[in-house]
UniProtKB/TrEMBL annotation:
Name used for this protein in its record: UMF1 family MFS transporter
Transmembrane portions of the chain: 12-34, 54-76, 83-101, 107-127, 148-167, 173-196, 237-260, 272-290, 302-320, 326-348, 360-379, 391-408
Predominant place of localization: membrane
Domain annotation Major facilitator superfamily (MFS) profile: ranges: 236-424
Its membrane topology: Multi-pass membrane protein
GO cellular component terms listed in the entry, alphabetical order: plasma membrane
Molecular function terms from GO: transmembrane transporter activity
Cellular compartments annotated: Cell membrane
Keywords carried by this UniProt record: Membrane, Transmembrane, Transmembrane helix, Transport
PANTHER family noted in UniProt: AUTOPHAGY-RELATED PROTEIN 22
Amino acid sequence: MSRMTKQEKSWVFYDWANSAYSILITTAIFPLYFKAAAKEAGIAASTSTAYWGYANSLATLLISLCAPILGSIADFKGFKKRFFTFFFALGIIFTLLLAVVPSNQWMILLICYMVTVIGFGGTNIFYDAFLVDVTTEDRMNQVSSKGYAMGYIGSTIPFILGIALIILSQQGILPISVTVASQAAFAITALWWGLFTIPMLKNVKQIYYKDQVSNPVTNGFRQLFLTFKKIRLFRPLFLFLVAYFFYIDGVNTIITMSTAYGSDLGITSTNLLIILFATQVVASPFAVLYGKLADRFKGKTMLLVGIFVYIVICFYAYFLKTTLDFWILAMLVASSQGGIQALSRSYFAKLVPKESANEFFGFYSIFYKFAAILGPFLVGFTAQITGNTNSGVFSLIVLFIIGGLLLIRVPEHEAIIKSNSFSQ
């Protein structure tokens, strides 16, 4: 970190900042809190699960559909930081509301959560696009990788604080209820997210942009239409996005299905939490390692290495039987999870025209969000027809093979720059 510029450090710290939301609100605490609130209100478990799924799907769909046009408008001078700040404030405010809305108001809690999903997702579009503004192409791999590494480490601190509050309240050591402890965890999330975003707000500026026009909204729509019209000029870029869609779907599915998979193997919830924590810690240095190796062997090569590791993971998952096997699988995931995500971001940032980075990262966001549909369905369908969860995870190998084969066909970005002019 000492060798990074102020702008690079400030950008990286946002990964540290928003990681609290990812683990406490999205993954670990709020889903259980919402389920308990709905149950207390007399809502059937299956019904509350359905509402949870609908809420996530609707919020994700809204921000995904808006991403390209918002990005197109944000490419004009002065708009990128405004959009980033707006969605950041939206996420922070409604995360704080989760801590003060009474637990018996389960529907209001769910609506607030949906707004936090929109705030979190919207902010990330412009955060990713700021990568082209804070560093040079030759440093993108390392800066992006360090962002993910900081995110993994940063997520463990509020995670430990939140879980500790809940466990201590359950055991009567703290004189508060589990509800109050959970609400305190939500407040910690918002404060953590807000505090460590200050450097980003203060030090990161939009360097690449299009000159301001009289009507940026109308011109944003016009630019989006022109991008689709000239899509053949961006063929390598969109070929990469299709490859990304497949392999990142496999990565995300393994992340989201890991808890259910471990439960099916008979692993206790305590062990699963410990393994989740260990995975976050181990993933951090490996994300940095991927960034360093990418500078030596090229980002595309290391992306293919990461895809190969995930193919090995799918094979290994088929023969999984014990808790030790699950530990080994988790460490294999940790070795490549952050690296493949970080290098995908930096590789894409090198391909896009810098003055249109927001628009193209809007498309990147769409492919990332919609790459959460095929994988879980494939796992569920295969597991159901075979009666074996291991077979379901093994089926994901298809996504990694397709993604890898498509990625091989994407030219190196140096060759793309020579053969195409993105400014045409």
